[in-house]
Amino acid sequence: MKALRHVVPIIAILAALTWSVIPALAQPTITDLGTLGGAWSEANGINDGGQVVGASDTASGEMHAYLWKNGSMTDLGTLGGGVSYAFPINNAGQIVGKSSNAEGATHAFLWENGVMRDLGTLSGPWSEAYGINAAGQVVGASSTAEGLVRAFLWRDGSMTDLGDLGGGWAQAYRINDPGQIVGASATAEGDIHAVLWEDGTVTDLGTLGGKQSGALGINDLGQIVGTSRTMPGNKFHAFLWMDGIRTDLGALGKGESEAWAINNAGQITGYSGTPQGEHAFLWEDGNMIDLGTLGGKESFAYAINNHGQMVGASYTASHEEHACLWSQ
User: Fold this and answer.
1) Which of 25, 195, 218, 292 is the most exposed place for a label (fewest CB within 10 A)?
2) How many domains, the chain?
3) Predicted local confidence at residue 80, as pLDDT
4) 147-200, pLDDT tens digit by residue?
5) What does the DSSP assignment read for 223-262?
6) pLDDT tops 50 at residue 13
7) Are strands 138-144 and 123-132 parallel, antiparallel or unpaired?
8) 75-87 residue pLDDT tens
9) Structural domain of residue 82, as residue ranges?
């Protein structure tokens, strides 16, 4: 169950660079973070204090957002419904995500100091929050009364439509501390491209030659990562966008790849196809390292903090998918 992967229409940018795969002995240590009593869990965010957030099945079969710290997983509850899901956490411990309410609608939330706050919508029935920075500014996606899907910025209690590339559809996935926002937008031609929102301007970041790309992560230096269709080949490849230059990060073998996060040291994490299945990776200094699994066939990394700790999910030897932490 790779729930987080369905948040975005997989996409990205840029041109070529040499990469290599580091032997398995170089891989960091992997830790199973457990569950809230069910069989499934996934980790989606980690801050510099090592606090981890994500979602897990509960013993009663519901899916709830959680906060993991000091070896213990805490259920964050919901907005009144049966489902919640946490994405990132900032260094102040503020958490954002999505939750069903008592009426069954899905709304973006901000959790802090034990309270889950409904952030509302852009006049439509649903919203989801995917990113938060140190100032507590939140980004995500919301429906409108007209049935459109729009990227939003929430700050000081107000949700604002960020605009798009002319295609009427956009989602915002991450915001850095300087306030730069990345995500994906439909173009006037109907393609999906990675975008950067900055100072009221929407910038098309292009693709690796194909028709789809999406920007999934950004650090405080403005370095951007994501995934894009390539051409030739028409495969999804992880990319790094830096100073206007697009770089194809390749893959672990001949598979596809997606880059989900980048820290301020330029370390990148995501996942890539391998002959054994999809595996989480760490990319740094031109090298892509296979992070391995919890004993099963596949693993996925979604976030990295400034200490190089990474979180995501992995299948175990008993074929369950569990949240996990990689430490260097």
Assistant:
1) 25
2) 1
3) 98
4) 999 999 999 999 999 999 999 999 999 999 999 999 999 999 999 999 999 999
5) -EEEEEEETTT--EEEEEEETTEEEEEE-SSSS-EEEEEE
6) no
7) antiparallel
8) 999 999 999 999 9
9) 3-327
